Amino acid sequence: MHILLANDDGVHAQGINVLKATLEKVFDVTVVAPLEERSTTGHSLTLDKPLRLVKLTDRVWGCSGFPGDCTLMGLGVVCKERRPDLVITGINHGANLGQDLYYSGTVAAAREAAFHGVPALATSLVYKRAGGMDHHFETAAEIAMWVAQSGILQLLPSLSLLNLNVPDVPLSEVKGIKFTQVGFRHYSEEVHKRVDAREREYYWIAGHLQGYRKNDNSDCHAVENGYAALTPHGLISSMDYDFTKVQAAVEKLHAQRFA
Length: 259
Description:
The chain is α/β, with parallel strands linked by helices and 259 residues long. The protein has a single domain (2-184, 214-258), classed as Stationary-phase Survival Protein Sure Homolog, Chain: A. It is built from six helices and 13 strands. It has helices at 14-23, 67-78, 105-115, 137-150, 219-224, 244-258, and strands at 2-6, 28-34, 53-57, 60-63, 86-93, 120-126, 160-167, 177-179, 185-187, 191-195, 201-205, 209-212, 228-234. Strands 3-4-2-1-5-6-7-13-8 form a nine-stranded mixed sheet, sandwiched between helices. Helix 1 packs across helix 4 (137-150) and helix 2 packs parallel to helix 3. The two termini are 27 Å apart. The model has no long low-confidence stretch (mean pLDDT 92).
């Protein structure tokens, strides 16, 4: 099986490189990821300037564009002669829970794959705290590999994807995998006003997380309670999505790996 990887943290980020090292033990893996960090850029595409690809190794390419561009360049250029069976994005450096998926470049790169008919999984590691070098990317990578091996992604209805959020703990401390709904996170609405050395005003968006809306079936609740959350996301609001088979397959995977 051939898997294309992309992300929004950049081609040199720890998350995507741990994911690549894990997946290539079993699969053929190609990477097309941004040459610089593109976090929270959402589903941007580069239409007003040329895109450039830089070949870093035989199977790793850096792209001058956004995460969505990376998926497009992977499907249309780098992997044109051998179309990927799956696209997996991440591992994102931080959560993509609740409504954050609409800001996320990691989710956007997976969404672009779904638009082109390729099953897609967005993968994120939910930090307990930012910074440091002791995050458990290997936990998220291992669970993403289980999902890829299980055949769950091939059960997705067209124009949909799966969004995986994994607690930042050793794999032995993950309680299981839950099939969840998109939750809602509460942020403060702070915008800090500053004045620069030339007496001009500027602003920092400074809102911080204040919790989440209580829903026992949400991705937020699952991760908060030690589970990896696997959440379906339909891309077209007018479509009637049936994720029954996907849910059954996730429950089977949970039973196999966490019995």
